[in-house]
Structure prediction request, 264 residues.
Amino acid sequence: MSDPYMPLTSVRSGIGFEAAKGVHGLTVQIANVYFIQYPSEPHSFILIDAGMPQSAGMILNEAKQRFGDDYHLKAIILTHGHFDHIGAIEEILEHWDVPVYIHSREMPFVTGKEDYPPARPDSKSGLVAKLSPLFPRHSIDISSHVQALPEDGTVPFLDEWIWITTPGHTPGHISLFREDGHVLVAGDAVITVEQEKMADVFIQKQELHGPPAYFTPDTETAAESIQRLAELEPGALLTGHGIPMTGRNFRSDLMELANHISSL
Prediction:
């Protein structure tokens, strides 16, 4: 059974956007999902993350608007298993019997075996941080659909993309990277809004930040993951929260962010 609707939202909720060549985004309340077009089939796509609870209708409607009435979902790839990235996945899988891919270290959280650790409401100031103990952190069980990503870093169905391990926010968090355009789908490894503050989340104030502190138990490893992403010299940051940043090399910005987090 899916979690109940959560009344957390932003001014961009329900707005679709072109994030990069072949990549379409949609803001679902406070989180972003991405649709990567399958190269040889213009009506087919791979979904990256699955949004907030009870958002399946919004996601599938956006797919129809973007890819046409005969749209076809090939697979779902999860950056990690937090509630705001898997909220609609069970309902989507009722519509589309497709494989789901996630890092092997995230498997316990999507096969009913392990819950995420408790939230850390005092990790940073802000109303969202204070509310975080109320957020779902229990596992789901999609064992019949989920499988581990290939260990060689390749991404199923997406030959131009690789996945990079970016733990810290969760044990098996991953990000996706495409050399063409230096496009980074970062998940929550790095975000572009101060997710702990309700007002900033609502207006989607665009600023570069590390992963949501209230759900990040290992900040040192999170900083190392940001450094790893900086070395890719991304030119487009497509994040799990906040408005994407594009148009320049973000290497120095990410290194500065990693150093800041390391010093906290």
